[in-house]
Amino acid sequence: MFKNLKKEIMYKTGLIIALSIICSNYSFGQGDRTFPIKGAPRNIIIVNVNGMGMNQIGAAALKKGDMLSLTNFPVTGFIQAWPPNGQQPSDSVTAEAIGTNKFQNSATNIEVKTIFDLAKEEKMKTALIETGPVTETAAKTFVFGNTNKKDNEALALDYIGSNIDIIIGGGSKYFDKRYDGRNLLKEFRAKGYNVVSKLSGLNKPYPGKTAALVEKDGISLTNKDFLTKAASFAIQSMGESAGYLLIIDDSKVEEADSLNSIALLTLEMLDLNKLATALTQETGNETLIIITGNYESGGLELINGDIKPKQEPEVSWLGIKPTAALAPVFVKGPGAGQFSGFYSQADIYKKLASFITSRQ
């Protein structure tokens, strides 16, 4: 009993310390104040990181020997990890809360509208980057809402009629090795898409639509810098004339949490750090960037704060499932000021919907 109590105290203490460090930008500067935090954005980028809590960030900072780039974003907020309906935190329920209007009121018969739906109505370009198969629950929820479809091949078929501008991720086997004999990659080509099967195919931007299914399953570790390459391709390909919405769904941090692997976790978090840096470099003053951890997973504890660059920090884990710890949100760009403080996952949708529907 006392052992469990000690672990719980250590975990909560570590979380409080981490919150204090981030909120004060302790010893690492006061954040990047060169970008506006007021106004409305023309472009919106959302990076949804499953399983990222404050201690995941702290662990990566200890391994790096410095704070991460995302902690230099000028605005920090925190969301409650449990969804508005009180369910256990999960990637699917979180995607419903952040990406759709399902939890905006208590009505059960409302028409579900996703962030992608709103962007298309406003003639914005749309893109999805997924570290797993693009048919994963969170990915399809962001694009299509809660379709209740469990079959990956059925979900893959939905993309043919979605009119999405760019889709990048894994899961090619659900498109070209199907039980119904259809080859959806050929159908993408027939609709005018640039179809890519390897990450190297994203080295140069493409002015039209792109379907890049670069792995038969999820993205493997051999595809290094997948997130930065995919994001750079999407941003440069879409341009800024009509405005765009880019959602990046990163499930790799939670995979590391579920394995209780600190080595894999720090690897994935430092990859995310590269993405944060790249997004800042690739975008200008009209782009709102949101990097949010939708919930913490694994109950990660930082045992001590010894900074030993290139060495894994000493940690322990409480389990392998999502916890109810607050999740951090890092924001920069026009409208970032709307995301300071504490709020629910569903409030993110509300704020984004307001930006999208009020575009000039």
Write up what this structure looks like.
About 6% of the residues have low confidence. Strands 5-6-4-3-7-1-8-11-2-12 form a ten-stranded mixed sheet, sandwiched between helices. The protein has a two-stranded antiparallel ribbon with strand order 9-10. By secondary structure, the chain is of the alpha/beta class.
List the helices and strands and how they pair.
Blueprint: H1 2-24, E1 43-51, H2 54-64, E2 75-79, H3 91-99, H4 115-121, E3 125-133, H5 137-144, H6 152-160, E4 166-170, H7 173-176, H8 184-190, E5 194-196, E6 210-215, H9 226-238, E7 244-250, H10 252-258, H11 262-282, E8 287-296, E9 300-302, E10 315-317, E11 327-332, E12 341-343, H12 345-357
Helix pairs in contact: 2-11, 3-5, 3-12, 9-11, 10-11
